[in-house]
Every structure is written in C-alpha cells, then in structure tokens.
Design brief:
The chain has 408 residues and is α/β, with parallel strands linked by helices. Helix content is 36%, strand content 18%. The chain has two domains: 3-103, 2-Layer Sandwich (Enolase-like, domain 1), CATH 3.30.390; 108-406, Alpha-Beta Barrel (TIM Barrel). The protein binds D-gluconic acid and magnesium ion. Residues 128-262 form the Mandelate racemase/muconate lactonizing enzyme C-terminal domain.
C-alpha cells in the first residue's frame, strides 16, 4: 500500500484551519489538522515544500516509522511549526489505519473507558456580573465545568479573553484585521487583589458541584503565582491554568509548596521533552497538550501514558483554533485514556463548521460522545473548502503600564 498524493487547504469559517488530506492507492484517504494559530501558512508551507514530497510512495500503515523519519530525520528537531505539520500527517495516517481496520480510533487504542468525556466551556464577562450571566448560560445548557474569566476593575485594558464592555459578546482573541498585534495593558497587582474574591463569589453563587476553572495565561511570576494559588484555594477550583510560564519548570516547586490547587499546564508545549520533568516531579495535575501542536497521536499517546504513571490527568487544549479534526483525535484519546481528566471544548457545532467537517461526534449535557465511524470519524468537504481563503490575523500582545513587554 502506498501514499499517492496529499493536499493542504488553508481557510475556514472565521478561522484559518490548515487541513491535510493524504490519498492512497487503495482509495482510502486520511485527514489531519496542522492549524498553528496566527502562523497558519508556515506549517502549510513545510508540508507542501518538504513533507508531502517525502511522503509520496511511503506505506501509510507505517505511522510510527514515518513519524520517526520526519522528527529524527529533520536533524533540527521539534518546534511548533514542524510539530504541527507532523501532527497533521500522524493524525491522517491514524485515520487511514482506522478506516482500513473498519474501527473508530478509540478501539485501536484499547477501547472505551467511559461513555461521555466531560468538557468545559469558556464563560467570559466584561465584569463579574456579566461573567455570572455567562456561567449561568452554560450551566443551563448542562455543562458540568466552566472556565471563568472576567474584566478586572481599574485594569488599563481588557485582560486576557474578556470582552471590552458588557454585551460585547464572545471574545475570540485572534484578530483578523491584519498581522500587527493589538496591545493589551496588564496590571498584576489589580488582578491579584480582585480575582480570588471574584472566584469565591462565583463558588457561592453556583454551589459546590460546578467545576470551576481559571486561566492565568502565564501572567504571574513564580512567587506571585504561589501567593495567588494560595489565595484562590477557598474557591475549590477544578484547576488553575498556566499560573506562570513553564519555561523555568523548577519554579513551580514554590507554588506546590504553598498551595494544593490543581495545576494545568502545557497548551504551548510541542513535545514530551517539554513536560516530562513537570510530570515526573508531579508539579502539575493536568497536562494540556494538543494533538496538533504536540506532533500527533503517536507522541501524545506516549505523554498520556507517562502522565498516568504520575497521577497526572489529561486536559487537552481545545481552543477555537483547533479544527474538528484535532478535536476528534483528542475525543478518541479521551474515550480511551484511563487517566482522562477533562476536555476544553469550543469548536464543533456551528453550521458552517459542520458543513466543512461533517461528523457525528456529538455533545450532550456537557459530555462529548465520540463517533463510532471508522478512523477519526470526521470528513472534509472540499466544495465547502473552496469558499474560504487564508485571512492574515494576529494574536494580541501584552505590555505593562510602563511599556514593558509581558507574557501573553
Ligand atoms: C486556552 C488558551 C487559548 C490560547 C490560544 C492562543 O486555554 O484555551 O489559553 O485561549 O490563548 O490558543 O492562540
Ligand atoms: Mg489556556
């Protein structure tokens, strides 16, 4: 069996999804996602210029050897652009494998460990009251877990992922008006003084059963993160995400020494080498990698197994930039993983997106039910795809009031 051709598509409804389609001499094809938010043309170029010409003629069933061939064979290993491109190839090869076996991928991993996988939605508000309404909306829809972000009084500009003003609707951080990033201004003191009380109020309002998550988005220094983690303990969070950048990983020991709030990290990681220390030293409770950014199902399954040995559960990244293909790959891992934790969920469900990526994966009462169709269980409508083109966009940056560039 041989790979005969592969094509890359860039575009989608309000997003620049990078979709790979691998064709074979037996008519079976596989689909994968290489979307690297706001840098979408780069994995697409790597696929087109180098990886696809090398794929043609290979046996698509040898997904492990093909992964090693690209990863080790590149000499300069890893990085987000390359790993997203390998991720798409790997997903597509697993899709082919599942279709050849006539089985959904979760069966190839070891079968289902659960019926539905708990997801969390994003609730946001310009202020706390606005956020309360947003949370209530998801609770009414049956969500069991909600990530909560709100505007901070006196903050010089809207902080991470919150609308500028009440009623401004959902805030999607990418901006498609051009490639120059917008600037947000951040004040750590105001955030640290306000947010613990706000989280406690949310807990009071919604009671003990709702799983409440909060994303700090790398804004705090390690000592501040330790103080903040301790201050939010009364709110009984499901997790506190990215309290500090995870480049200096030993620094998380300080937070661990002062607080027991569960910690989730990893959405910007590209490989097992970015998280093996955090997992082995048990400095985190949830690993946030995404199947696309971390190089595909093959390497992510290894991360999940390592995590399981250290009581670390999964909480895969599921930002709006991930296409339904990445979300499907994660859904199959979520159905199988003995150490599944939760799944971030924002993508599926808009009519335009469903038309581009038809599937029968479904969400019900805050649980994601994986498709039983062979492979990933998602198709790609090329006629629909022809309606879209690449639109340059940007991700905001953040500065302190004196102009110092800060961590977004
Ligand atoms: C999350 C993330 C995202 C990122 C985005 C960057 O927890 O979902 O923090 O919202 O900001 O993926 O492109
Ligand atoms: Mg995050």
């Amino acid at each position: 069996m041989k790979i005969t051709d592969a094509k890359v598509f860039v575009g989608g409804p309000g997003k620049n999804y990078v979709t790979l389609k691998i064709m074979t001499d037996q008519g079976v094809y596989g689909l994968g996602d290489a979307t690297l938010n706001n840098r979408e043309t780069l994995p697409a170029a790597y696929l087109q210029d180098f990886l696809i010409p090398n794929l043609i003629g290979l046996d698509p069933r040898k997904s492990e050897d093909i992964w090693q061939f690209f990863y080790r064979g590149a000499y300069f290993r890893g990085g987000p652009i390359a790993m997203a491109a390998y991720g798409a190839i790997d997903m597509a090869l697993w899709d082919i494998k599942g279709k050849l076996a006539g089985m959904p991928l979760y069966q190839l991993f070891g079968g289902k460990s659960r019926e539905g996988a708990m997801v969390y939605a994003h609730a946001t508000g310009a202020d706390l009251e606005d956020l309360m309404d947003s949370i209530a909306h998801y609770v009414e829809k049956g969500y069991k877990a909600v990530r909560v972000q709100c505007g901070i009084p006196g903050m010089p500009s809207a902080s991470y992922a919150v609308p500028e003003h009440k009623g401004a609707g959902k805030h999607y951080i990418s901006d498609f008006s051009g490639i120059r990033p917008k600037v947000e201004v951040w004040d750590t003191g105001r955030y640290m003084r306000y947010m613990p009380g706000a989280l406690a109020e949310i807990r009071d309002r919604f009671g003990p059963d709702l799983h409440i998550l909060h994303d700090v988005h790398h804004r705090l220094l390690p000592r501040e993160a330790a103080e903040f983690a301790k201050a939010v303990e009364p709110a009984g969070l499901f997790w506190l995400e990215d309290p500090t950048p995870a480049e200096d990983q030993d620094a998380l020991g300080l937070l661990r020494a002062h607080a027991t709030v569960p910690i989730a990290i990893g959405e910007v990681f590209n490989s097992i080498w970015d998280c093996n220390k955090l997992i082995e030293k048990e400095l985190i409770d949830f690993i946030r990698v995404a199947v696309t950014y971390a190089g595909g199902i093959t390497p992510v399954k290894r991360i999940v197994d390592l995590a399981g040995m250290h009581h670390v559960r999964t909480g895969f990244h599921g930002a709006p930039s991930h296409s339904p293909l990445c979300m499907a790959a994660q859904a199959h891992l979520n159905a199988w993983a003995p150490n599944f934790g939760i799944q971030e969920y924002l993508v599926l469900g808009t009519p335009a997106c469903d038309a581009l990526f038809p599937s029968d994966h479904r969400m019900e009462n805050g649980l994601f039910h994986v498709s039983d169709a062979p492979g990933l269980g998602v198709d790609f409508n090329e006629l629909e795809a022809a309606r879209y083109k690449y639109t340059p966009g940007s991700h905001p940056i953040v500065r302190l009031e004196d102009g110092t560039l800060w961590n977004y």
